[in-house]
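Renewal narrative, Specific Aim 1. Our central claim is that a sequence can be written position by position from structural information alone. The example that follows is taken directly from our test logs and has not been curated for this report. It begins with the structure tokens describing the chain, in the order in which they were read.
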């Protein structure tokens, strides 16, 4: 077990290294840089700016310096968007907003998707099953930048029930629309995965034995089928949570949420390399941790995986 944990941690470090390397070279391949303002910058000013931020050095030297700084926990200073501020401080201020939004969204996804999938599995091939799966398919097909404006137009503009934009922690309703926009897509996937997992378990011999003994349907579902039937959904929850937090980039821009997403978009627009690298590595770390925790939860739920990892 310990060997498998160490192996997965090393895999996570390798993923982060590759992710950081690709991000560095892709940013430097952009046709513009952080010092290209609307007005022409004099050559001597450009030289001083490049020397100040290390852009006068060869690309491979910049790469190894950046790698060394990141390994030491130094993400550098923002070059353009918030010039002179540490990237770690910027992320420390904005990330809690994105994390709060992601947690609420994944809770909404679980509260909608898992019960819908269970109900669809119990009512297999019925009108209810077809209706739930049709709605789930629509949720998968529609991206969040389509769902978001639709929800804002209907619930915010027409009905006036919730704020259309902005972020006010004192007003929980201001979090509802962006969290719902993020959560609905994950809820659609969760409902289909839960249905598939529950159907597989409900067709097992021990379920038929429980039915033959006269146990009630809800007891069979909760005591016998639920733990095994939720394994596919649990496997999805790890990457879903990370994808929900990182996928908030577009949603934050739509609803004017002051999270990392808006800063990330501005960093890309201005070529702010350090402020691009910071969120990429942060989201990458979050995905690695979420997948790792999901794997551990699967091992706990699945006796076969526990036996395999015990060897």
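The sequence written for that structure reads:
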């Amino acid at each position: 077990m310990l060997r498998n944990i160490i192996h997965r941690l090393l895999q996570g470090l390798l993923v982060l290294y590759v992710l950081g390397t690709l991000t560095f070279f892709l940013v430097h391949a952009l046709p513009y840089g952080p010092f290209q303002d609307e007005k022409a910058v004099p050559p001597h000013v450009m030289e001083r700016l490049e020397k100040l931020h290390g852009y006068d050095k060869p690309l491979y030297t910049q790469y190894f310096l950046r790698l060394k700084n990141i390994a030491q926990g130094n993400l550098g200073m923002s070059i353009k968007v918030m010039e002179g501020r540490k990237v770690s401080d910027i992320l420390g201020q904005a990330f809690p907003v994105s994390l709060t939004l992601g947690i609420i969204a994944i809770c909404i996804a679980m509260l909608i998707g898992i019960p819908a999938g269970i109900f669809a599995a119990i009512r297999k091939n019925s009108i209810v099953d077809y209706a739930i799966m049709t709605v789930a398919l629509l949720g998968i097909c529609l991206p969040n930048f389509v769902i978001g404006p639709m929800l804002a137009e209907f619930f915010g503009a027409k009905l006036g029930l919730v704020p259309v934009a902005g972020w006010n922690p004192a007003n929980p309703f201001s979090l509802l629309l962006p969290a719902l926009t993020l959560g609905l897509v994950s809820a659609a996937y969760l409902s289909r995965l839960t249905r598939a997992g529950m159907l597989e378990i409900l067709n097992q011999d021990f379920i038929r034995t429980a039915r033959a003994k006269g146990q009630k349907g809800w007891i069979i579902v909760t005591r016998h089928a639920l733990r095994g039937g939720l394994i596919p959904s649990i496997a999805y929850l790890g990457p879903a949570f990370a994808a929900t937090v990182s996928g908030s980039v577009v949603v934050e821009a739509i609803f004017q949420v002051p999270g990392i997403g808006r800063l990330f978009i501005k960093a890309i627009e201005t070529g702010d390399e350090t402020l691009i690298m910071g969120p990429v590595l942060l989201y990458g770390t979050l995905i690695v941790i979420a997948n790792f925790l999901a794997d551990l939860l699967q091992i706990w739920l699945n006796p076969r995986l526990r036996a395999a990892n015990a060897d």
